[in-house]
Amino acid sequence: MAELWQWIQDHGVVVATYVYLGLDVLLRLVGLVVVPRNRRPGSALAWLMAIMVLPLVGFPLYLLLGKAELPRKRREKQKVINRLMHVRAQDLPDSELDEDSPSWLQSAVSLNRELGAFPLTGNNSADLEIDYDTSIARMTADIRAATREVHVLFFAMALDEVTQDFFDALAEAADRGVTVRVLYDHWGSLSHGSVYRAMRRHLDAHGIEHYPMMPIKPFRDGAFQRPDLRNHRKLLILDGQIGWMGSQNLIAAHYDKKSNIRRGLHWQETMARFRGPIVSEMNLLFATDWYYESAEMLTEDDLVQAPTDTSGSYECQLVPSGPGFVFENNLALFNQLFYSASRRIIAVSPYFVPEESMLAALVTAARRGVEVELFVSEIGDQFLVFHAQRSYYAALLEAGVRIWLYRAPTILHAKHVTIDDAVTVIGSSNMDIRSFLLDMESSMMIGGTDFMEKMHHVEDVYRSRSRELTLEEWEQRPVPMRLLDNLCRLASAVV
Q: Where does the sequence pass through the membrane (predicted)?
């Protein structure tokens, strides 16, 4: 043994070289077998390229980030929730659609019900708020009016000069005996540092129960958890009677970042406030996330409240999505609606990196005569995503899609779609691969002529703040910029 060890020491360079080459070949061969399994061709190709170029770097990254799957214990919880929701759905008929609703809308309702188990509810009312500070002020006022229960769930939450009154209202509610439950994404909030810690201290000081969602504790649930699986939902439910959802996080419009303040960046959002039976469905969705983090199963009798306001005329259906579902619920819904459109599609998405089927649906719609408009930001706050989405502009413009660039220094962070004059989808979901595969999202499909008018008014406001990108302008961009966009597009496929 001593002689062998001495020989290894004497020939260390040769041994290390052969070990390296053997490991290099082994990782490449294993990658060829493992990576393509149950994966989109584009994603598989991107991972294989990473592994083939630098096996000792690419393969560990694949083990870390290559599976968009929750760990075993969370999957078991998701199965319990899905089973309970489907059992409940069997006893709840869908609301009747308006007589003037297009025939294809019923198939969208059936699809959503099959994927997410939430029924279509009628007699709802809703209004929109696009002013950042006003929406926080209105949510704060609703908290102060709550008498029984307040449920809060946001991807990013922080206590700063803009949200101080919101958290004061939560404290007042808890102090007067209202049950307050708070959820926030761990990384989405933790990354904001001191204002995140201030929020936690404030909640603790008033005895408010709160949990970070998808905590970055890799082996907490019995298996390694991919760290970039996040809960991206934004929900506020009060007494089971009022529900807020949309794109806005609970943080100052500049996200408390010095670089954003220096550049003058601020976020533009769209939030919707609901009354009617749909609020109980929103409450049930909150309860699923509460169960994941607290292990407390809130009862349906407590969550589903008879609405005090049923004067509305909107049909609403909640659509949850995320890595806990077998199918990509939000992508399936968007594609179904895009292929059903006959006159007009208007899509607002800050991060637009479409899956191949979505790109085909939009291009096909434009080529068959549907007016297609896409709203994105003129500048981006995420380098990789911003340049990846730019790589799709040429194909869209060539097909006849009109692209509106929301003027700098504002980041258009709103997320909504309107189809013809028939239906709206609004919520937290971007139109990118991350929202389809890695993030837990919530979307609301809404039918109703009056609501469509409200939505079109918002679109008109955004159009007035944007400039249209033309194909001629786009073709004149520098070659190095084209190469960068295409390189980022390739990198974005590594999911």
A: 12-33, 45-65
Could you report the per-residue pLDDT of 415-458, keeping only the tens digit for each? 999 999 899 999 999 999 889 988 999 999 999 888 999 999 99
CA distance 142 to 268: 22
Question: Is residue 122 exposed (0-12), middle (13-18) or buried (19+ Cβ within 10 Å)?
Answer: buried
Within 13 Å, how many C-alpha atoms sit on residue 323's CB side? 24
71-83 pLDDT, tens digit per residue, is 777 778 887 887 8
Contact 334, 124 (CB under 8 A): no
- Which positions ≥6 away from 408 have C-beta within 8 Å? 377, 378, 379
Tokens at residue 87, please? 């059992």
Q: Regarding beta strands 314-321 and 121-129, do their DSSP bridges make them parallel or antiparallel, or are they unpaired?
A: antiparallel
Give the chain's length.
495
DSSP assignment string, 380-440: -SSHHHHHHHHTTHHHHHHHT-EEEEEPTTEEE---EEEETTTEEEEES--EEHHHHHTEE
Q: Which two tokens stand for residue 110?
A: 């059936």
Q: Which domains does the chain have, with CATH numbers?
A: 2-65 (no CATH), 72-95+127-312 (3.30.870.10), 329-492 (3.30.870.10)
User: How do beta strands 371-377 and 402-406 pair?
Assistant: parallel
| CA distance linking residue 56 with residue 94, whole number of Å | 53
Tokens 């809703």 locate to: 126
Give the pair of three-digit tokens for residue 180.
Answer: 């307050």
In angstroms, the CA 152 to CA 174 distance is 13
The string of pLDDT tens digits covering residues 132-144 is: 999 999 999 999 9
| Residue 425: strand pairing partners | 417, 445
pTM: 0.90
Residue type, 440: M
Is the bond leading into 409 cis (omega within 30 degrees of zero)? yes
Strand partners, 443: 319, 427
Coil vs helix vs strand at 282 = helix
Query: Which residues fall within 8 angstroms of residue 22, CB to CB, at 6 or more apart?
Result: none
* Both tokens assigned to 290: 């509460």
- Do residues 139 and 133 touch, judged by C-beta distance below 8 A? no
What are the strands, taking DSSP E only, across 173-241?
179-185, 209-213, 230-231, 234-238
The residue ranges of DSSP E strands in 198-305, in sequence order, are 209-213, 230-231, 234-238, 242-246, 266-268, 271-275
∠ CA 348-349-352, nearest 5°, is 130
The alpha carbon of residue 479 and the mean position of all alpha carbons in its chain are separated, in whole angstroms, by 32
Contact 254, 175 (CB under 8 A): no
